[in-house]
Give the backbone structure.
Amino acid sequence: MALYRDDGIVLRNYKLGEADRIIILFTRTRGKVRAVAKGVRRTKSKFGSRLEPGSVIHGQFYEGRNLDIVTQAESAAVMPTLRTDLSRYGRAAVMLEVVDQISEEGQTNTALYKLVTGALAELDRDGNPLVVPAFVVKVLVLEGVQPLLDRCVTCEATDDLIAIDMSHGGVLCREHRSGDPISDDARHALMNVFDGHVRHVLETTSDQLASELESLSSRLIEQHIERRLRSSTVVDQHLIHDAEADDDSPRDG
Ligand SMILES: [Zn+2]
C-alpha cells in the first residue's frame, strides 16, 4: 500500500463498525478522499477530535482499494469560534455541504480548496452574515455559471424583476417568473457581491437584507447543484449509501 500526505478539510464523518469512523475530506491535491480512521470512537483521542467536520488537517494516509486509511492528522488551522458558536457552525455546515456536492474524487480543485479554507477562516474570525453569500458567488463563478441579474433572462425587461432561477440563468420579470422571489435590494446587493464589493455591501446592508442574501444564496447554490446532479453521469454512489444509513455527523447545525 502506498503512503501519502495531503492537506484536507473534513466535510463529514460517520460511524463504521464498533470503533471506527469514515472521514470524508476535500484535499488540496486529491480532491475528495474517503478514509477510515481506526479506533477513534474507542478513545477520547486528539486524533479523533481533529477529524470533526470543519477541521483542516495535515494528514497522512495509506491508499486503499476502496477506502484509504488516515494514519495521522495534525491541525492545519485552529478555528475555535467555529466549534462553539452555533450560527457560525451552521454557516460552515452550508459551505461544507456545497464542497461535498461539487468536489470529486481524484480531481484537484485548488481554487475551491483555497476558497473554502479562506471562507472558514474568515467565518471563524469574523462571523459576518455575508461569508456564505460571498462564498456561494465565488463558487458559482468558479463553476462558470454567473446568473444574469440586470434584466429578465426571458424578455430582457429591466423593470419589475421579482424572481431568480438558476435553471434559467438569472432573474425574471413578473410575467416570466419562476424559481425564488428576490427583492430589488437583494438583487442589487448580489450584483455588488459578484463585482467583488463584499465589504461595501456589508457596510451598507441591514440585518434583514443580509439574512435575505444568506437564504437566497443558499437557494441559488441548491438550484445549481440540483441542475448539476441531473446533468451528471456519475452514479456510482453505492458506497456512500451503505454507510450513510449509520450517519451521525452534524449536517444541519
Ligand atoms: Zn420577462
